[in-house]
Amino acid sequence: MRKFALLLILSSGPLVLASVTVSAPANGSSVATTVQFVASAAASCSAGVSAVGIYSAPGNLVYSTPGNTLNTQLFFSPGTYQTVVQEWDNCGGSTATPVTIHVSGTAGGQVSVAAPQNNSSVSSTVQYLASASTSCTSGVSAMGVYSGSGQLVYTATGSQINTLLKFSPGVYHTVVQEWDNCGGTATAPVTITVGGGSALGGVFANLHLKPGWSGSALLPPLYELCNTCSPSGPQTTFAMTPSVPSPSLSGASTRADVGGQTVYSDGFWNNKLIGDFSSQGMPDTNHSIVPNLHSFTFDVYFYGNDIEASQALEFDINQFVNGYSYIWGHECRIMGGHQWDIWDNPGQKWHATGIPCNPLPNAWNHLVIQVQRTSDNHLLFQSITLNGVTSTLNYYESPTPTTWYGVSINYQQDGNYAQTPYSIWLDKLNFSYQ
User: Fold this and answer.
1) Largest separation between any pair of C-alpha atoms in the chain
2) Residue 305 — φ and ψ, nearest 5°?
3) Domain 109-196: what homologous superfamily?
């Protein structure tokens, strides 16, 4: 990070002290062709800073923005550039900071931020979960979080970040940055609006395309995980295929298939998100996250071209904490009676709600399920919203003992009396926690 200060003598007489602080890119660094510039400016001019801009070469202004900060990405062809970040104040003064960069098509790296989401509203305790990659053969050296331009508030060695940071209420233009061992760097801007309170919160977006889904068959009459069953059958066939272009809403759906020879058998998929065996880089080994989570939302779109062949579709939210298992099971019985059932934890059986479940055939259906773990450690089934119609449950249940720790979700497709093979497409699967 470079900071350059200059005393300017204006024609009107007063001395104006000004400075430009550049937090990215680093002076002399090797970068990829897309370069992130992050900078701030200050001036003793009573009217403040008017604008900040970037010169790719002397006299070649390639970007400017009003105000005293900038955060933008610019494209450069391979080569060495003597760039300059300059500020202009409202008293007629100006100063600049030179930044030399070496651009190549392969240098530099990439930063992926899983949490918090860009432009999200968060509580005062914010989880930063990010990873970095680089073409540098020596790998990523470190990663860091800037709460604002030039304000480095956290660093970690290696290519992973998973930490909790405290913020006062306000809007923050944070930046997650990586530095590699070849002198390269990359950044990802993340703007957050911080409110009051101290609850954790986050969103796993597009989980239907994320890693970690493990599939199995469930066979009658016990419906336990079949460890000897093969996805190719013959008892039950089951498969999950991501990145399907059609049908899709986002351009990439995931198709789930079930069939086989054993009637009334099911295809089951589970993804462990936080805690034990986390697929999303959140093992929570110090138990600072899961015990503080109480509210969950399962938000998904699903499509079936032969949806009436389904005995039932199941969507589950699971939390395992403090020795207790909280399983919010939700089952849309289709051929089984077009009604929503919810899971009775202590009784290990389904409980009929009387709420209709009539998903549309050959169309995208939008499902939102909301649940809570109450302050006295009970399960609260709050509501089910299907295609814009919300049904309020407000049903309480008790947990059961377990030694597991974490948060996970399940998706399941049940076979009918003939085990008719059918497919369901999932898209925009988002899971929120707080």
Assistant:
1) 92
2) -90, -10
3) Immunoglobulins (2.60.40.10)
Q: How many CB atoms lie within 10 A of CB 86?
A: 19
Q: For the segment 397-416, what is each residue's pLDDT rounded down to a tens digit?
A: 999 999 999 999 999 999 99
What's the order of all strands across the beta sheet hosting 140-148? 120-122, 185-194, 170-180, 140-148, 151-157
**Alpha-helical runs (H) found in 124-184:** none
Concatenate the DSSP letters of all residues of 278-312 into one string: -SSS---TT-SSGGG--EEEEEEEEE-TTGGG-SE
Domain boundaries, the chain: 2-103, 109-196, 207-433
Tell me which DSSP letter residue 246 carries.
Answer: S
- Residues 239 and 267: their CA atoms lie apart, in Å, by 8
CATH 3.90.930.12 fits 2-103, yes or no: no
Distances (CA, A) of 63 to 28, 48, 73, 74, 376: 20, 20, 10, 8, 55
Q: Distance (Å, rounded) from C-alpha 223 to C-alpha 109? A: 46
CA distance 237 to 217: 8
Can you read off the two tokens belonging to residue 295? 């509210």
C-alpha 434/C-alpha 425 separation (Å) is 27
Q: Which residue has the tokens 């403090």?
A: 322
- Percent of the chain, pLDDT > 70? 94
DSSP string of 379-416, one letter each residue: EEEEEEEETTEEEEEEEEE--EE-S--EEEEEEEEE--
The structure's pTM equals: 0.62
Q: Are strands 185-194 and 120-122 parallel, antiparallel or unpaired?
A: parallel
Domains 2-103 and 109-196 in one fold:
yes
Q: What is the CA radius of gyration of the chain?
A: 27
Q: Is 289 helix (H, G, I), strand (E, B) or coil?
A: coil
Q: What is the mean pLDDT of the chain?
A: 89
Q: What is the mean pLDDT of residues 72-77?
A: 80
CATH 3.40.50.10610 fits 207-433, yes or no: no
Helix (H, G, I), strand (E, B) or coil at 292: helix
